Amino acid sequence: MALSNDDEVKEIIVIGAGVIGLTTALKIQEKGAYRVTIVAEVFPTDPKSSRYTSHWAVSKLDQDTFHALWQLSEPGSAAEGCFLRHTQTEYRGDDLTDAEWLHYMPDFKYLDTNELRGPAKTGFSFSTVTMNTPVYLNWLMSSFLAKNGTILRASLQHISQLLERGTSPYTGAHSYRDVDAIVVCAGLGARSLGGVEDKDVYPIRGQTVLLRAPWIKFGRTMTEADGTYTYTMPRSNGDVLCGGTRVPNDWYPIPRPETTEDILARALQLTPELAPPQTRHPPIIIEPGCGLRPGRKGGIRLEVGWVDASARGKVPVVHSGYGFLSSWGSASRALDLLEGALTTGAPTNADICVGHPSGNPGN
Fold first, then answer.
1. Helices 19-29 and 133-146 sit at what angle, rounded to 10 degrees?
2. Given CA atoms 263, 269, 272, 275 in this order, what sign does their dihedral have?
3. How many CB atoms are closer than 10 A to CB 245?
4. 3-class DSSP state for residue 14?
5. 299 phi and psi angles, rounded to 5 deg
6. Can you name the residues that pair with 290 across neighbouring β-strands?
7. Which of 287, 296, 292, 289 is closest to 252 using CA atoms?
8. Cβ(38)–Cβ(144) under 8 Å?
9. Tens digits of per-residue pLDDT, 298-309?
10. What pLDDT, on a 0 to 100 scale, did the predictor assign at position 220?
11. d(CA 316, CA 225)
């Protein structure tokens, strides 16, 4: 039985529970005019795997996201324990001469020549924040649930499965509310999810090593002329995430031992303080990690499509995603797109991005 939707409360489904799905759901929910459900196959509470890449992420941030996370990391904040504020130093051995896109960062400055190391030709430092990603993801989900959000574990083959009777096919409920909009934050799954099937999405395989080194309270990165990228990023709990690799279209799902050894060698060269000579033992290796991050030809996809929901007309489908780098910024943009679509409705010449696969919406 279909329940009537309160005119003041719209029914929104967010597909995906990575950092983009969780942040976007929370951002939509905060408006107070939406009933939000997250539908995903994998959640932050699940064991780590290459399928759920957000656990392995290093968060270097765009401007909107940086300001949001800097505020969340303030002393006394409910999320303070997820973050560590520290000084970040970046060394560049490539042809970069100006880091103007980072000038807004607190305490930004270029390094003097005598401060450079290794193959670096230039460098700069600034104050930033890194996060304990598993803890932060669970904080996002807990915050969403605490504000009456709903989560549902389901394996979707096609977004039309949510249009006919909402989430009731997966919950077994006899009553349901019609869906007013779908927000797709499926990450790499957008490549194969029916009704989306974005073939411009591809995996970028990243591998890391997590160490126990609570004496490290600063971050470093090195970008070499050949593109090799090395980083050591401290977390609030005393762990240090070391990396990394960025290999497009590599689907191998577990850490390669030889890559782990290479990352450790590069990390120790960049940050020898990980194993200072006065210590008897090197840092403890907690675990190697591997994730398939979503990349996309042409860059981030933030747009509105429309789906034919039979008698109810066209329903907006908002596409959003990019990862920690722009999680709050893209969530804000997705909310703007969602509200604009719900306010104006589908244009008469709107392309229909998906219908029911059988051509029959059912009874």
1. 30
2. positive
3. 19
4. strand
5. 90, -170
6. 207
7. 292
8. yes
9. 888 888 988 887
10. 98
11. 45
The whole-number pLDDT of residue 277 equals 74
Q: Are strands 34-40 and 10-15 parallel, antiparallel or unpaired?
A: parallel
**Cα–Cα dist 70/107, whole Å:** 14
Beta strands at 239-243 and 247-248: parallel, antiparallel or unpaired: unpaired
CA distance 25 to 331: 8
Other beta carbons less than 10 A from residue 191's beta carbon? 17
Cα–Cα distance measured from residue 121 to residue 111, given in angstroms and rounded to the nearest whole number: 10
CA–CA distance, 255 with 248 (Å, rounded to integer): 15
CB 238 within 8 A of CB 211: no
Q: How far separated are the first and last CA of the chain, in Å rounded? A: 12
Q: Prior bond to 118 cis, omega within 30? A: no
DSSP H or E segment with residue 123: strand 122-131
pTM: 0.84
Q: Which of 111-115, 131-135, 170-174, 340-344 is most confident?
A: 111-115
DSSP symbols for 162-221? GTSSTTHHHH--S-EE---EEEE--GGGGGTSBTT--TTEEEEEEEEEEEE-TT--EEEE
44 in helix, strand or coil? Answer: coil
Question: Is the C-alpha dihedral spanning 64, 66, 72, 75 positive or negative?
Answer: negative
Torsion of CA 11, 334, 128, 109, to 10 degrees: -170
Residues 316 and 181 sit within 8 Å (Cβ to Cβ): yes
Over the stretch 147-200, which tens digit does the pLDDT of each residue have?
999 999 999 999 999 988 888 888 888 878 889 999 999 988 999 999 999 999
**Count, residues in the chain:** 363
Indicate the angle between helix axes 327-344 and 19-29, nearest 10 degrees: 50
Which tens digits make up the pLDDT trace of 34-82?
999 999 998 988 876 655 544 444 444 488 899 999 999 999 999 999 9
Whole-Å CA distances, 201 to 23, 186, 190, 328? 21, 11, 7, 21
Cα 214 from Cα 86, distance rounded (Å)? 13
| Placement of tokens 């990862």 in the chain | 323
Dmax over Cα atoms in the chain, in whole Å? Answer: 74
Distance between CA atoms of residues 63 and 362, nearest Å: 46
